[in-house]
Amino acid sequence: MEFRTNPFSTCNWQAGTIEYIFDTGVDIKKIYEKLLKSGGIGQIIGQHGTGKSALLESLKNFLIKNGLNVNKNVLNSSQKKLSHDFVLSLRKRDTNTFYILDGYEQLTLLSKLKLRFVRYKNTAGFIFTSHRPAPFIPVIYRTIAKPEVFQNLVRNMIKNTNFYITDKKINQIFQETEGNFRNGFFKLYDLFEESEN
Q: Does 159 lie in the same domain as 134?
């Protein structure tokens, strides 16, 4: 059946809609085991558009399937403060709740310092994403943009369409966007729209 909307629309690749593609020999269970070895505390590091949010969503689903509650807070350029509910929940320190923060780098220095004093040992765990490693927190995984992964994602996204694009063009877009998958999808969105007109 022909795809009736643009396959590169945000709704088709936002976190939770595409499975994170791991390096060979790594999967979500191994990420979780590494997290447990670090006492349930860790960070996922990577540049813009390399899949941090997608990986975090996969981890969230894994935790829920394994009987844990998950409290997730997403930060971005327009939302730089922790939600009131998230902060209250952290203070209660529920031993069956795993706390997830997507966008640690958006926090103010004061907010980052406050988080350091939270006693995570009385929670199921705490993990966040960041562009750069935060001191004294174990790095659980580093997301790295690879052209072959981008190509694989694009091919999967257009398989139910009549849209044609060469591997060379896909790689060119990957280079132009400096490995930022998100920006690459934006470019491909425009190309798809042009092909439909």
A: no
Give the pLDDT of the chain (197 residues) as one tens digit per residue: 344 589 999 988 987 788 888 877 889 999 999 998 988 889 999 998 899 999 999 999 999 999 999 999 999 888 888 888 888 887 776 788 899 999 999 998 888 877 776 656 667 888 999 999 988 889 999 999 999 999 999 999 999 899 999 999 999 999 999 999 999 999 999 999 998 87
- Are residues 138 and 61 part of one domain? yes
For residues 51 and 136, membership in a common domain is answered with: yes
Which domain covers residue 172, as residue numbers? 145-196
Question: CB–CB of 129/52 below 8 Å?
Answer: yes
Same domain as 34, residue 70: yes
CA–CA dist 75, 190 (Å, integer): 27
Boundary residue ending a domain (120, 143, 166): 143
Q: Are 156 and 7 in contact (CB under 8 A)?
A: no
